[in-house]
Amino acid sequence: MSPLSNLAVRDVETLIHPYTNLAQHRETGPLVLERGQGIRVYDSNGKDYIEGLAGLWCTSLGYGNEELVEAAAAQMRKLSFTHIFGGKSHDPAIELAEKLKEIAPAEISKVFFTSSGSEANDTQVKLVWYYNNALGRPEKKKIIARQRGYHGVTIASASLTGLPANHGDFDLPIKNIMHTDCPHPYRGMEAGESEEDFSRRLAQNLEEMILREGPETVAAFIAEPVMGAGGVIIPPKGYFPAIQEVLRKYDVLMIDDEVICGFGRLGTMFGAQTLDIRPDTVSVAKALSSAYQPIGAVMVNEAVYQAMVEESRKLGTFGHGYTYSGHPVAAAVAIKTLEIYERENIVGQVAAKAPHFARRIQGFADHPLVGDARALGLIGALELVANKETKAGFTKPGVAAKLASLCEAEGLILRAIFGETLAICPPLIITEAEIDELADRLGRALDQCE
Ligand code: PLP
């Protein structure tokens, strides 16, 4: 192992890294990145990497976008901060809320801003409870999420997340949050079952869960259109229509977590439009600003909003909000980001490039280590297995992580996620030639993996 550089030593001595094996990090040290341009980032030795996960599924417009830099600088010069508590307001927050309402995948009444996806989903939980208290149904509080879903790391959003690492030894999930099936065709479909049958079976299981718990106690269901961190899981055909039929029957709100799928990732503005989701409320973050600023939002329908109005009338205030809710600089950057998406027809471009992306990803399906190669829009994954026939996993875990480090050596940043899966989610501005370059680098890494 090469000795750590000066920066790496300082890192190890000072930083706690999220989602990192902290013991191992002391030995290996960090990859220190210095700058970025287009779809590439460069380390402190000048080596280039294709950012194949768009940072953390967020840098849709890539790096070095001067328009976004300028939007931030101009707003900082004009009014670097004002909060929007207690009736104060400012131009960028108003304009961004108007724009989100206009493009939202549902009849959205109002928008509440956060700084992250976790804060957005935490807010969702509080709003669901607030809503049912306002309606005089204090017992209707349970929220059903899904195994392997990812919704963040705050106490409520980590509880919604359905991954063991987010619960184990953090004493989560909190009460009133439960998890139904993960809609993973590769792992979950039974022999002879069609995708539609599988969807119906999952909807039936959900209905049984609601009946077991008592429909009068179940308030909401939360889902990502395509699960991201839980394994890039593309639901089977007919999944959301079948699920939503059950939700409607028992008056259960549909919360659509668009933190990854929102703003073009699946080739439509929102994942809801690709997968036929009819949400009551929506969470967004990440690509809302192409990660040039931390910003997220919760969008709610009129019924939820009216309940909030009534509760705040009764209690004297709507007692929730972050210092940086609607931060003017973040909002200005988000407005510019949405303007660029529209002007450059980014969503249409994703739809046009998606078949090429899918062909290149699915081209790895024959590799002996690849059990399943899947893609939709510009998100995809390779699920690695020890035995393609039986789909059996590895006796020793960490094969996807090893593949990710082989990719890194080849100049490609990807991420090993749950289920020995390697996630691929490049900036939306990637060209077909760059998709080829990404796939070639991935292919070279895969061939070295054992
Ligand atoms: N929801 C989804 C679908 C996500 O993928 C993420 C983060 O990856 C979150 C919520 C949490 O967002 P954040 O990390 O900004 O808190």
Automatic annotation (TrEMBL):
One of its GO terms (biological process) is gamma-aminobutyric acid metabolic process. The keyword Zinc does not apply. Gene3D superfamilies: Aspartate Aminotransferase, domain 1, Type I PLP-dependent aspartate aminotransferase-like (Major domain). It comes from Lutibaculum baratangense AMV1. Signal peptide: none annotated. One of its GO terms (molecular function) is adenosylmethionine-8-amino-7-oxononanoate transaminase activity. Keywords: Aminotransferase, Pyridoxal phosphate, Transferase. This is Aminotransferase, class III. Pfam families: Aminotran_3. NCBIfam families: PRK06105.1, PRK07480.1. Belongs to the class-III pyridoxal-phosphate-dependent aminotransferase family. InterPro entries: Aminotrans_3, PyrdxlP-dep_Trfase, PyrdxlP-dep_Trfase_major, PyrdxlP-dep_Trfase_small.
